Amino acid sequence: MKIFQTTISLRQRRRGFHLITDEVLSALPEIRQIKTGICQVFIQHTSASLTINENADPTVRADFEMFFNKAVPENDPEYVHDYEGSDDMPAHLKSALLGASVSIPISNGKLALGIWQGIYLCEHRDYGGQRKLVITAWGD
Q: What NCBIfam families does the record point to (predicted)?
């Protein structure tokens, strides 16, 4: 059993859904040493999240942003937690809906993503800053 782990800081991105698959792979090239295993990517934040979805057509990412903004609107007068602005509590809710981690099988030294799949950083804040990821891969 081989286990590899690294922590990386992603550059600040604007609000939206951003493909980060290449950054994950670049950060942990040891994945190539694993024939069969798992890669987990975990985000150390509560106002951004991760998911896996369409990696080719950027309109999918725009539609994700549109949907989540409608589903979890800003400026709801019933929000109590608003210390950091009108996007604060909605960002926490969006993060809770999507989740803080993704797990991807590793097959023959590569992430076993489908042909149209990629890892998204889901930035839910207008000014979220750099985001830290812990990437762990294990297997034989």
A: TIGR00149_YjbQ (TIGR00149)
3-state class (DSSP) for residue 115: coil
Whether the Cβ atoms of residue 104 and residue 39 lie closer than 8 Å to each other: yes
Domain hosting 104: range is 2-74+83-139
According to DSSP, the residues that pair with 104 across neighbouring strands are: 39
**Encoded tokens for 21:** 């698959």
Is pLDDT above 90 for 61?
yes
Q: Which residue has the tokens 């990517």?
A: 41
Split into its structural domains, the chain has a count of 1
Give pTM, 2 decimals. 0.96
pLDDT tens, position by position, 72-94: 999 999 999 988 899 999 999 99
